[in-house]
Amino acid sequence: MDEKKVVTPVQPYLRLDAEDYKEILNKRMGISSFYEFQVKDPEQSCFKAVPDGSTDLVFGIGEKDVKVLIGGTVLRAKNWDFDDGRYYFGARFLPGRCILPKDLSIQDVVNNDVEIDLNDYGAGLTDRIAEAEDVEQRAQILMSYFSENQKRSCRDGAHTLEEYMRQRIYATKGNITIGMLSRETGYSECYIRRIFKQIHGISPKEFERFIRFQAFLNEITAAPGETDSEETALNCGYYDQSHMLKDFRVFAGTTPEKYKKRICDGSARRADHTTINKQKENTHGIIKN
């Protein structure tokens, strides 16, 4: 089955708060995006993570060593800690598409960040990532690795069933019941829940809540000054505004209005920072696009 519908997983606080943050959207081979940022100040090494149903593979590149971390979706707004003095490169997998090291299960990484061995994804891969010049090169290295990995792996009936369920959840904006999925697929509700949790580490019901939240988050992040929260909530699969507000407070750790204000303030700060940088570059005879 082709990946027809996707809600792009987003971690907005990382975008807002991380220094020198850059992101490359991907949508190939089960990877949503690649990103990079730096942590120079110990007081700016903690960000807030929000539920997205996805899994992140992160390389923390320091002067003397490299740390490799893999973390699954959080279950509510939660602190996301990083070591200062490192450059970070990450790959965010689409929900249900992550490739884990052999001895690690998805249940191990849900709501958790696990440090793994440097060679868990193959001898030399971490060194190549660390030695690459920029995020584009690192993304190409990982894409080549996962391309070869997917050629060697074969998808079984459980993954085919999960993919069907995931597509139906996307298509219905998180408003399809387990009973409906059971009737459509011919499998029992118990089996459906077990297969879904085996691949995602969370239940279908939890995933549906995360998908509605992420859809709403994408909308108000893209146009914080233009979106009407109530209308957007209905368009993203919520029954009403109170239904959305309850989830948003738990998952984002704030209200939609406060979040939208933060997005607007962050955009203004980035614009000021860009202007200042360009003025500095021009004084040194350097002009960058």
UniProtKB/TrEMBL annotation:
Q: Which residues form the HTH araC/xylS-type domain?
A: 159-262
This protein's superkingdom?
A: Bacteria
Instruction: Fetch the SMART domains from UniProt.
Output: HTH_ARAC (SM00342)
Entry keywords, A to Z: DNA-binding, Transcription, Transcription regulation
Q: Carries keyword Transcription regulation? A: yes
The record ties this protein, via InterPro entries, to: AraC_XylS_family_regulators, Homeodomain-like_sf, HTH_AraC
Q: Does the keyword Transcription regulation apply?
A: yes
Among Gene3D superfamilies, the record links this protein to:
Homeodomain-like
Per its record, how is this protein called by name?
A: AraC family transcriptional regulator
